[in-house]
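Deliverable D2.4 — example input (structure tokens):
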């Protein structure tokens, strides 16, 4: 149940004020889930649900900026999603292309594509690469758009990259096996050079990761929200960050 507007706004401010800078996650990953179910409940098309979800992204990034988050990773399309019907997939890819262009056009955020671009249509790849190029020098919030992304595929791509690199250098398999380490994989992930996600949020009530940032999220805190992504509010985001701040992070220790 939503609170009446004046009380609702006061509640949001109170949560935000309770968060000290050292309690804010540097990197937040978000699984944007529930667009189709939102559309079904609203009696409208899946494309409308995906569009409403895309319209919510700028709000999330603004909320993240306000509290000092440095990196946001948005899971917009998984490798599994690529098997959806041609009609839905074509509409969804078009919405993603427009959303990425809109994010880049603001000049506020640095956009980076993370995913298996070789699985995507040329038009989608072009939109992602153009957004990356036009925001490369932006110093604001770093936004990873995970499109055609799968955690297992990312790790496989990292290992392939390592093997190719050492093959070019003339390293033997025995030499590579002897020196191979966790750091080798981390240095070849899509998100190399970025902090691992401190907090991962999934909307729609589903309580599973589905392979999102599989390697990077080993020590992440998870927050599952009942709201479908198009209905996700600032107060939901602040509650997630407050829950993160209240936890004792052991980081595997």
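Example output (designed residues):
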């Amino acid at each position: 149940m939503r609170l009446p507007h004046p009380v609702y706004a006061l509640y949001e401010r109170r949560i935000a004020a309770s968060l000290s800078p050292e309690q804010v996650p540097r990197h937040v990953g978000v699984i944007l889930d529930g667009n189709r179910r939102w559309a079904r409940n609203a009696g409208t098309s899946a494309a409308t649900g995906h569009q409403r979800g895309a319209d919510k992204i700028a709000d999330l990034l603004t909320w993240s900026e306000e509290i000092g988050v440095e990196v946001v990773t948005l899971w917009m399309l998984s490798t599994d999603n690529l098997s959806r019907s041609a009609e839905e997939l074509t509409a969804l890819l078009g919405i993603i292309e427009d959303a990425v262009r809109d994010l880049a056009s603001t000049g506020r955020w640095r956009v980076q594509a993370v995913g298996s671009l070789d699985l995507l249509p040329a038009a989608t790849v072009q939109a992602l690469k153009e957004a990356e190029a036009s925001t490369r020098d932006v110093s604001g919030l770093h936004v990873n758009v995970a499109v055609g992304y799968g955690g297992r595929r990312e790790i496989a791509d990292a290992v392939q990259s390592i093997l190719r690199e050492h093959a070019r250098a003339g390293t033997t398999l025995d030499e590579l096996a002897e020196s191979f380490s966790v750091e080798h994989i981390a240095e070849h992930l899509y998100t190399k050079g970025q902090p691992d996600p401190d907090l991962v949020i999934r909307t729609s009530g589903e309580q599973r990761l589905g392979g999102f940032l599989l390697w990077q999220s080993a020590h992440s805190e998870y927050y599952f929200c009942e709201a479908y992504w198009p209905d996700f509010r600032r107060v939901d985001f602040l509650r997630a960050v407050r829950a993160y701040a209240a936890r004792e992070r052991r980081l595997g220790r």
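The beta strands are 27-31, 71-78, 110-114, 142-149, 199-202, 221-224.
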